[in-house]
Structure formats: structure tokens, C-alpha cells
């Protein structure tokens, strides 16, 4: 495999609050490779977006990187200066945010906003940038791009605004594109078009993509590798083709997410959701963070926190009982703790 474009190792991102320190990301590691898509999945509050914003150094004022490294092109982004980050953001690493209406400035035209990356990072003149702006709108399959370039965000539909955001993110042909739930606010047909567009542009430019979502269906369609997060930790990491098959090992949380998905050939009378809710970040369990919601939980899980261990080639799981056969056995049932 090619050398990793981005390597995150033991990243810890904390936030100071009146009630204490929130460990939003706690010891997270993963790598992103050229031309491949890394899917990061998990419930709201699992630390997916904070991980991405840590890479870009776009944290809130009370947030800080408490430890770990973010290595990109031989540099640790956790330690470079703000001025150096200006040259990386939007140029080498770009981002598509979740809600395009709040990402685009309502008082500036599309042409004005889309021209900025070319003027700032590519040193183009205003005239050259405006010409390039139309080319990018055409590349993301926006009809009549000359007219759209003169319009304002409120004049465009949600799908059109998201295409503009993709055009802006890919303007400088970045090495890495971070897509933070880019299809959440879109209907299913537009979502499919946006995902197809991102796949096509990735093949054309060789861009690596970090795709953040809570939708496993989207991950199945987009990702080459998958990181499953829960309570600021990676609980499973594996190739997508392994996670979306009936593999022998998995984390109970990943298993629960799978059982929560409706399928066309499903003969179940109802879905099997994960019980309970994600614990409050200031009141996390002592042992395994998923223990209070896990049907396979034992006293060992309550008392001790499992390490992220390799269970198969390219598969890491944070669980004392990664084997599906073992934890579903009658013997395991005898040591299970009832909540």
C-alpha cells in the first residue's frame, strides 16, 4: 500500500468547561491513503467531527489538543503555526461542512466566494479566478454555471449549494478532502447524485477523502476503510468490505449499528436498536464506555477498559469479547451482567 498522506496517532482533544474537562477525542489513531476513502462513523457526540476539526485546527476557543500527533507531509499539524495552517487549509486539506447554507456567506455572490481559493492560494488575478470559478461549477455538474456564478446562496437549492461547496473544496485540487456529513440535509435522490459526484471527482483527481457520517448505508457505498467511534474512542477499525460482511469478529457497538439498519430482504418484524443513550462526556463509565448499553457486558467490562487490539489482518477492536461466536454462546451468557 502507498505511504499514508495523513497519520493521526494517539490524538487527544479536550474542551474546558465550567463543570470540568470534556475528553471529546481520547487516544484516537488512524491513517488516510492517497485515492482512498476513510469512513468515520458513530452516533452524535462520538467525536467524529472534533477529530476532523483537530486535524484542521478549527477548534472552539475552549478546545485544545492535549496530546498525540497529526502528521501531514512530514509536519505535525498539532504544532505548526497558525500562519502555516493558513497555507494548508483550503489548499492541501479542504473541508465540506454539514450545512451548506451556514457555510456560504449570504451577502456575497457564488462567484465572489468561489474565486477566493484561487486568488488566495493560487495567486490568480480576479479575472482568471472568475473564469476558473465557472469551470469548477461546470465540473460539479451545475447547469448554466455562468448564471449560477452571479447568484447568491439563497437563490439555490440545497443540492446546488452543496455542489458549490464541493467545487470550493476541490478548487485547489487538495490532497485530502474532509466531508463532514455532506449529505445529511439532502433528500435521497440528491444525496445519491452528490455521492456519485464525489466518487467521480476522487477518481479524476486522486484525492483522499475522510467521510464523516452516522449513516452506515453511505459508508458502505463510499468507504474503503472504516473507523467506528464511540465516546471519543475508536472501538473498531477495518476495511469496509470486512465490516459489511458476516465477519467472525466485531465490536458489539458495530454489531448494534448493523442490526439497526432496515434491509429490503429483512424478515424481522421490527428493528433491533441499541438500548440506552450515549453517556454524558463528564460522567463516562469506569471500564468499557459501551458497557452500560451492551447485551454482552460482564463484570470485567464494567471494571476494566479494554485496549484497541488487533484481532485479524487490518482489523482492530476495543473489546474483551470480539468473537461473535464466543459472546453469543450459552457459556458467555452465564457471566453476562444484567443492566
Automatic annotation (TrEMBL):
Gene3D superfamilies: P-loop containing nucleotide triphosphate hydrolases
Residue intervals passing through the bilayer: none
Compartments reported by the entry: Cell membrane
Protein's organism: Acetatifactor muris
Pfam families: ABC_tran, oligo_HPY
Entry superkingdom: Bacteria
GO molecular function, one term: ATP binding
Its membrane topology: Peripheral membrane protein
Residue ranges of domain ABC transporter in the record: 6-256
Family (UniProt): Belongs to the ABC transporter superfamily.
Gene Ontology CC entries for this record: plasma membrane
Protein known as: Oligopeptide transport ATP-binding protein OppD
UniProt-listed NCBIfam families: oligo_HPY (TIGR01727)
InterPro entries: AAA+_ATPase, ABC_Ni/Peptide_Import, ABC_transporter-like_ATP-bd, ABC_transporter-like_CS, Oligopep_ABC_C, P-loop_NTPase
Record key words, sorted: ATP-binding, Cell membrane, Membrane, Nucleotide-binding, Transport
Listed GO biological process terms: peptide transport
Amino acid at each position: 500500500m502507498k505511504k499514508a498522506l495523513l497519520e493521526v496517532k494517539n490524538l487527544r482533544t479536550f474542551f474546558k468547561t465550567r463543570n470540568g474537562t470534556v475528553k471529546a477525542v481520547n487516544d484516537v489513531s488512524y491513517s488516510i491513503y492517497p485515492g482512498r476513502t476513510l469512513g468515520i462513523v458513530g452516533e452524535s457526540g462520538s467525536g467524529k467531527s472534533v477529530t476532523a476539526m483537530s486535524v484542521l485546527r478549527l477548534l472552539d476557543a475552549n478546545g485544545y489538543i492535549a496530546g498525540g500527533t497529526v502528521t501531514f507531509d512530514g509536519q505535525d499539524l498539532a504544532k505548526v503555526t497558525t500562519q502555516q495552517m493558513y497555507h494548508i487549509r483550503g489548499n492541501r486539506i479542504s473541508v465540506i461542512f454539514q450545512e451548506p447554507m451556514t457555510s456560504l456567506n449570504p451577502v456575497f455572490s457564488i462567484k465572489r466566494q468561489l474565486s477566493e481559493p484561487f486568488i488566495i492560494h493560487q495567486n490568480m488575478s480576479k479575472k482568471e479566478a472568475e473564469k476558473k470559478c465557472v469551470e469548477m461549477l461546470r465540473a460539479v455538474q451545475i447547469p448554466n454555471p455562468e448564471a449560477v456564478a452571479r447568484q447568491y446562496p439563497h437563490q439555490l437549492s440545497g443540492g446546488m449549494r452543496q455542489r458549490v461547496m464541493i467545487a470550493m473544496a476541490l478548487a485547489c485540487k487538495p490532497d485530502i478532502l474532509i466531508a463532514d456529513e455532506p449529505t445529511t440535509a439532502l433528500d435521497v435522490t440528491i444525496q445519491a447524485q452528490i455521492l456519485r459526484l464525489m466518487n467521480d471527482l476522487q477518481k479524476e483527481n486522486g484525492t483522499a477523502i475522510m467521510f464523516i457520517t452516522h449513516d452506515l448505508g453511505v459508508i458502505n457505498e463510499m468507504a474503503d476503510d472504516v473507523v467506528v467511534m464511540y465516546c471519543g474512542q475508536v472501538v473498531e477499525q477495518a476495511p469496509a468490505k470486512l465490516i459489511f460482511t458476516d465477519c467472525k469478529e466485531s465490536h458489539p457497538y458495530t454489531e448494534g449499528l448493523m442490526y439497526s439498519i432496515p434491509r429490503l430482504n429483512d424478515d424481522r418484524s421490527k428493528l433491533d436498536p441499541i438500548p440506552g443513550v450515549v453517556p454524558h462526556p463528564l460522567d463516562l463509565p469506569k471500564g468499557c464506555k459501551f458497557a452500560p448499553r451492551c447485551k454482552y457486558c460482564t463484570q470485567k467490562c464494567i471494571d476494566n477498559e479494554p485496549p484497541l487490539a488487533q484481532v485479524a489482518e487490518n482489523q482492530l477492536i476495543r473489546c474483551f469479547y470480539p468473537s461473535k461466536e464466543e459472546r453469543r454462546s450459552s457459556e458467555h451468557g452465564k457471566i453476562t451482567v444484567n443492566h
